[in-house]
Amino acid sequence: MIPLKKDFESIKYCHLTIQKKFVEFLLTEMTNPDYDSLDNEVISKKLNFINELIPLYFEIINQKFKSIEKIESLFYQYYNTTSVFKTIIESTFVNTFSKFSKIAISWDYELDIEPIERYIRIVDKIPFTFPSNNDSLKRERYSNTSDNIFNGLSQEYNSLILERDNPNILSVGISNSYANINLPKVYDIIFDTRDLSKFIEQKTIVKCAYNYRVLFHMDLWRGHHSHCLIEVIGDIPEIFDELPQNGTKEHKGIGLCTKYDWEFIKERNQSLLFF
Fold first, then answer.
1. Is residue 272's pLDDT more than 50?
2. 205 phi and psi angles, rounded to 5 deg
């Protein structure tokens, strides 16, 4: 049986935020002073392992690919050396995985998420009739919302009604929001998730959301699909014409991100990120 195979598999597909934290735990465990009484040969192997591990940590910091796979390969390389070091390296990784499994890592908010993961994915167009008044904003649907917050929603809803004749507003479906996001949110880049060489530097505003299709909200919830109204500033790119109506056929999606995050996103292997 291959040691720790399931543990490595479980972390390969985690957010880079989580992978980075794992390697920080591993480095801490590897430099544990309890191992300082080892003989010179074992200490030398340990230092060599750390020297090879540190560049992989910075690969994760710099949003590189397959870094966990490389760490796994490094583990097996050193695992198959001397019996003494085999015990040490296995114990180190077992302790790391055990400690790592017991911590809570915040990844609900935008600043918790690595830049390479921070993009909105639009998957379809959703039929939408602009409201002519705010009668459909039912107070009883917001029973857990304070009067102050609901009054703010009402103001935003009234502002939305004034944009009913804006031709640049599109009604779209967004898949799996990458974080909890306060709206409106401005993005700088529109890109084709199927081909990252196809992108446009053009501002798009995610203006509001209809979670569960009826609850008007000025935020997105991490991991949730949402019906959103977006405004494209300037001429609407032709790529939006490719979106299916209401999910009637599969589409890999149109991405929206900031200019800063795009520098990381465009470097990532498409087959790993967009599926």
1. no
2. -110, 120
